[in-house]
């Protein structure tokens, strides 16, 4: 996979990397020019990751996810819940940030170079769809859902 550095500060901060041997995702940096405040319950704010990727494999996609500590401790989540990076997209990866805390709470402060999101690579399956009148091999769970199996 090829990576383009769009913000030269990544050369000093380091490329996105897996923080531990068992990390599933790369951390993404906030490539902001100055301290940025994310106001509670305000519209989501796009923040540059400073990089672009060329997947080189249409069987992969990227998922931009919130960092669990930032979401749990500070209330910083993604404005689009999960960002999908299609394998044919080669533009800059942007991070949609949103402060989920109640209105009137303090803003969340984001510093230049702070790790604010993570990028997970996943396989992509693209089955061919066939229109049918009835399913072959339907299961007992054909209808219901949303708690239909009970709560205990």
UniProtKB/TrEMBL annotation:
- Reported EC number(s) for this entry are 3.6.1.23
The cross-references to CDD domains, in alphabetical order and at most eight, read: trimeric_dUTPase
Pfam family of this protein, just one? dUTPase
Cite the SUPFAM superfamilies for this sequence: dUTPase-like
Instruction: Write out the entry's keywords from A to Z.
Output: Hydrolase, Nucleotide metabolism
| Superkingdom of source | Bacteria
The record's catalysed reaction(s) read: dUTP + H2O = dUMP + diphosphate + H(+)
Family of this protein: Belongs to the dUTPase family.
Protein name, as recorded:
dUTP diphosphatase
Species classification:
Bacteria, Pseudomonadati, Pseudomonadota, Alphaproteobacteria, Rhodobacterales
